[in-house]
């Protein structure tokens, strides 16, 4: 096992440990984090967002391949991943590198920890509401699939 692969596994374990067991439907935390990151969402190229119960992954892969065949640079985000976490982030048909995962998560984990620690009690914390991840996601069976087109961020 390469050192990068071991690092990737370690940072992904830390990332998954941060994932709340319940969903907080308030957007305050993500809005503060996006501000801290310099609002990257405002720099995105046009995005195709696919939602529904079945077929999202297939539709997004098909759209991404058609656009790429037409010479358009593409970025594809899918969640959840099937085998490898890096499958979630594909740029021009290639999954992001393990080194990029390690660098990105390592760079932003302190900011996320700081934001979690500074959140007022009951505000933006997973235990602050009654929504469970299972009930919020399974009622519609929806996961998110998106393809960003025209240029990569």
Textual characterization of the structure:
The chain is α+β, with helices and mostly antiparallel strands and 153 residues long. The protein has one domain: UDP-N-acetylmuramoyl-L-alanine:D-glutamate ligase, CATH 3.40.1190.10. Helices cover 43% and strands 14% of the residues. It has 5 helices and 5 strands; from the N terminus they run ααβαβββααβ. Strand 3 and strand 4 form a beta hairpin. The longest helix is centred in the last third of the chain and has 21 residues. 10% of the residues are buried.
How far the N terminus sits from the C terminus, by CA atoms, comes to 30 Å
- The assigned CATH architecture is 3-Layer(aba) Sandwich
Determine the CATH superfamily. Answer: Mur-like, catalytic domain
Assembly of the depicted chains = single chain
Could you state the order of secondary-structure elements as H and E?
A: HHEHEEEHHE
Beta-strand proportion: 5-15%
| Spans where pLDDT lies below 50 across 5 or more residues | 123-153
Biggest sheet strand order reads 1-5-2-3-4
C-alpha Rg (nearest Å): 17 Å
DSSP strand tally:
5
Percentage of helical residues?
40-55%
Structural class: alpha+beta
* CATH topology label: UDP-N-acetylmuramoyl-L-alanine:D-glutamate ligase
Indicate the CATH class. Alpha Beta
Q: Which descriptor suits the 3D outline?
A: globular
Please tell me the overall pLDDT: 75
What is the count of distinct domains? 1
């Amino acid at each position: 096992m390469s050192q990068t692969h071991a690092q990737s596994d370690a940072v992904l374990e830390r990332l998954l440990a941060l994932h709340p067991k319940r969903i907080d439907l308030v957007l305050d935390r993500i809005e503060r984090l996006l501000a801290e990151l310099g609002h990257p969402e405002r720099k995105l190229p046009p995005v195709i967002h696919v939602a529904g119960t079945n077929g999202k992954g297939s539709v997004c892969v098909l759209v991404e391949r058609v656009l790429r065949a037409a010479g358009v640079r593409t970025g594809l985000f899918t969640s959840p991943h099937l085998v490898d976490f890096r499958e979630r982030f594909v740029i021009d048909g290639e999954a992001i590198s393990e080194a990029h995962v390690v660098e990105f998560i390592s760079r932003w984990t302190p900011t996320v920890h700081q934001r979690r620690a500074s959140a007022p009690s009951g505000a933006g914390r997973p235990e602050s509401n009654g929504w469970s991840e299972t009930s919020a996601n399974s009622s519609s069976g929806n996961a998110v699939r998106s393809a960003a087109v025209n240029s990569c961020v």
